[in-house]
Write a structure and sequence with these properties.
It contains 11 helices and 7 strands. It is α/β, with parallel strands linked by helices. The chain has 2 domains: about 170 residues, Alpha/beta knot (3-Layer(aba) Sandwich), CATH 3.40.1280.10; about 60 residues, Helicase, Ruva Protein, domain 3, CATH 1.10.8. The chain has a 7-stranded parallel beta sheet with strand order 3-2-1-6-4-7-5. β1, α2 and β2 form a beta-alpha-beta unit. It starts with a helix and ends with a helix.
């Protein structure tokens, strides 16, 4: 079975939980982060603004993920938010004493992806992060590696990183087909460009055949490094013709 075929089922078993979020913009941006990575279940635990899901700022930051906002749930406690999940991952910058083991997302999530778990990712309030009691409810703690001197991540940014890492662990999305590579010009075509430009450079007085100063070998190396396509050969020869024509027109009395 192709990886893309199992993504919807894996996404349906994933829940993102925001504990006491305080900014409507972060809630909207978190919804957008989920949708971009193919997830949809968002649960808010006791948000500071009970009407946060309907705020214009939330809709603006969701930027097209209004369906995720529309189906998001608000519950009173973390216990309610985790109901039905079989594995909960807290997010915290530093490990807690007596808490669950702490991992980088890229270390833990590939292992978790190989298990038949209904996973919940739990994020704390913007100002304080998760309380110890909330971390203790979880099976693992995820700590996103950051610069030692400044490890403060915005809530929505943290959601985006974890959602991306989880999607990556689940197999990612199929990469869209690349635009077919341009057909590379053969050696004869490149030599034709060089000879054409040599004639034009002599004609306009840029190249003195009596003292060429290795100009043409250098141009040869430049064209070789460029690995010209067939279309680029046509462009360069067209420019050479235009330069020669302009020179001839200017020389007419």
């Amino acid at each position: 079975m192709e990886a893309a075929a199992i993504l919807p089922a894996a996404g349906a078993a994933t829940r993102f939980v925001l504990v006491q979020p305080s900014h409507a913009g972060n809630v909207g941006a978190a919804a957008r982060a989920l949708k971009v990575m193919g997830f949809a279940e968002l649960v808010l635990v006791a948000p500071r603004d009970a009407g946060v899901l309907g705020r214009p700022e939330a809709a603006a930051f969701a930027s097209g993920a209004l369906d995720v906002l529309a189906q998001a749930r608000i519950v009173a406690t973390l216990a309610e938010a985790l109901a039905g999940s079989t594995w909960a991952c807290a997010t915290a910058m530093t490990p807690r004493d007596f808490g669950p083991p702490t991992y980088a997302p890229r270390t833990h999530l590939p292992v978790l992806a190989g298990q038949a778990q209904r996973v919940a990712f739990v994020f704390g309030p913007e100002r304080t992060g998760l309380a110890n009691a909330d971390v203790y409810r979880c099976h693992a703690c995820l700590s996103i590696p950051t610069h030692p001197a400044y490890g403060s991540l915005n809530l929505a940014q943290a959601v985006q990183i974890v959602a991306y890492e989880w999607r990556l662990a689940l197999g990612g999305f199929a990469v869209l087909p690349r635009t077919p590579a341009a057909r590379q010009a053969d050696a004869a075509a490149v030599q034709g460009v060089l000879e054409h430009w040599q004639r034009v450079l002599v004609e306009i007085g840029f190249l003195d055949p009596a003292a060429p100063r290795k100009l043409m070998p250098r141009l040869q190396q430049l064209l070789n490094r460029a690995r010209l396509s067939v279309e680029e050969v046509h462009i360069l020869r067209g420019i050479a013709r235009a330069v020669a024509d302009a020179r001839r027109r200017a020389a007419k009395p």
